[in-house]
Amino acid sequence: MTLYRRAAGALAFATLLAVLPAPVQAQRGDSFTWKLGVQGGSMVFQTRTQDSELIPSGGAHFLIMARRTGLMVGVDEGFGSDERSGLVLFNDLRRYQAVIIAHPVSLPLEPYFGVGGGVLQVVSPRIDPVVTDPFEREVLMEAAQDGSAAAFATFLAGLQGRWGRVTVFGQYQLQSAPGDDALLDGVMHSLHGGIRIALGSSREGIREGGY
Q1: How many CA atoms lie within 13 A of 109 on its CB side?
Q2: Could you tell me the residue ranges of all domains in the chain?
Q3: Cα(169)–Cα(161) distance, rounded to whole angstroms?
Q4: pLDDT exceeds cutoff 70 at 138
Q5: Torsion angle (degrees, nearest 10) of CA 110, 111, 117, 121
Q6: DSSP secondary structure of 95-138
């Protein structure tokens, strides 16, 4: 529950940035747009019995821009192979997250920062074949399923360049450690690069003659 409170607290604090009055936030060229992004890179994680491992990862997200802030909602998949946490084996990691992004300056090449939270999931955990007792396997599987997902708080920092409707970016992300009963252990790092395409306006204009 502590991690859920951290994630919720970080996201609530960041949301304040998104609702600042208009005089405080100058408008950007891509204000009030929504964008589709794809990214690729790597994740670095630990388990209860495995030191830091680097695996390739990729994902997609939507970024809904306000004036100088935006809400990014997305999913990433880390592609591992026979990773181990005790007697539990797994391959992939899946991360669902929502992050408030702040753009402090508007430049051809500009930094951005974000805080938020989400859920990190160990995909399809399985029990090591060395365990042959059916009762023990059942107990281990129940524990593995209970510890396969954990909430997290996260911080990210990135650099991006915008050319018309296209944005190219690179970003580093740090997320908090899961609880003691999780399969994963310690903080997780990730590094991604990708592209975002502006698909349209995130708010409707004022129409004349409507009801």
Answers
A1: 2
A2: 2-16+33-196
A3: 6
A4: yes
A5: 80
A6: EEEEEEEE-----SEEEEEEEEEEEEEE-S-EE-TT---HHHHH
Estimate to the nearest angstrom the gap between the alpha carbon of 59 and the chain centroid. 9
For residue 136, pLDDT beyond 90? yes
Residue recorded with tokens 């209970």: 146
CA distance 118 to 153: 7
The residue with tokens 């890179």 is 41
CB–CB of 123/94 below 8 Å?
A: yes
pTM above 0.85, yes or no: no
CA dist., res. 148 & res. 152, Å (int): 13
SS3 139: helix
Structure token digits, residue 81: 């192979």
Residue 6 has pLDDT above 80, yes or no: no
- Selection from 129, 128, 125 nearest residue 144 by Cα: 125
pLDDT (tens digit per residue) in 159-179: 999 998 999 999 999 999 999
Predicted local confidence at residue 108, as pLDDT: 83
Band of pLDDT at residue 17, cut at 50, 70 and 90: very low
pLDDT higher than threshold 50 for residue 206? no
Please give the Cα distance from 10 to 21 (Å, whole number): 20
Query: What is the CATH code of the structural domain delimited by 2-16+33-196?
Result: 2.40.160.20
